[in-house]
TrEMBL record:
Protein's name in the database: Transcriptional regulatory protein
Subcellular location: Cytoplasm
SUPFAM superfamilies given in the database record: CheY-like
UniProt key word DNA-binding: yes
Pfam annotation, one family: HTH_64
Record lineage: Bacteria, Bacillati, Bacillota, Clostridia, Eubacteriales
Function statement: May play the central regulatory role in sporulation. It may be an element of the effector pathway responsible for the activation of sporulation genes in response to nutritional stress. Spo0A may act in concert with spo0H (a sigma factor) to control the expression of some genes that are critical to the sporulation process.
Biological source species: Desulfosporosinus youngiae DSM 17734
Length: 231
């Protein structure tokens, strides 16, 4: 498969450099443009029509959601991954409404953006050289995000102190995508979280009956706790 054309949009030069290094390290993507303002980003996207844009929300001249809205208004078929410090539900919902393919919260680890880009590469490959798709193909391709009611309403109580809704959804979605039992260490690495943070969210999801805890015993060493999503 040819490299996927990608545009980076980030106003912080140091973060831009880090993101660029991550993309090059992962491979399979060609950075065809970079922008540090919303105006510059929109001009690049209109000119280059890249497959993918990694877009920050907090830009000096506008909000990244405005760029996303304008891209959709113009009918530009570019996919968007939001990388941002914004964690409020309204912003997350706005991004999902305009069809983002992923949402990564700053600060993040390399493994999180690696997973996002690898998932996108697999997604793009599904459309290569296809004239049509059957239901089985679509069922494999489409990932339906769980509604917040799936666990918040069942708990019927506010989140414990120190837990955040967006991070809880991130952990839940990561488990749902894999559909296999994973340890807290595996979830932490895949979701770009600290190990102790991942364990706290997993324990809460188990408490409200959204994940099952499976203890695996090996021939030597301590038993390993694996968490699996309840479908």
């Amino acid at each position: 498969m040819n490299p996927i054309d990608l545009v980076l949009v980030e106003d912080d030069p140091m973060v831009m450099e880090v993101n660029e290094g991550f993309v090059k390290r992962i491979g399979g993507f060609r950075i065809c443009g970079k922008a540090k303002t919303g105006k510059g980003a929109l001009e690049l996207i209109q000119e280059l029509r890249p497959h993918l844009v990694i877009l920050d929300i907090y830009l000096p001249d506008c909000n990244g959601i405005q760029i996303l809205r304008e891209i959709r208004r113009q009918g530009i078929p570019t996919d968007i991954i939001l990388i941002t410090a914004a964690q409020d539900v309204a912003t997350v919902q706005a991004g999902l409404h305009f069809g983002i393919v992923d949402y990564i919260i700053k600060p993040f680890k390399f493994e999180r953006i690696e997973a996002a880009l690898n998932n996108y590469r697999s997604y793009a490959e599904q459309f290569r050289n296809r004239g049509e798709m059957n239901q089985e193909d679509l069922d494999r391709l489409i990932k339906i995000l769980p509604s917040q009611e799936s666990y918040y309403r069942k708990s019927r109580e506010p989140l414990p102190k120190g837990l955040r809704e967006i991070t809880l959804q991130q952990v839940y979605n990561f488990l749902k995508e894999r559909q296999v039992g994973l340890s807290a260490e595996e979830v932490a690495e895949g979701a770009g979280l600290a190990r102790v943070t991942a364990r706290r969210y997993l324990e809460y999801l188990e408490k409200i009956d959204q994940v099952l805890l499976e203890t695996q015993y090996g021939s030597v060493g301590r038993p390993i706790n694996k968490y699996k999503i309840v479908l």
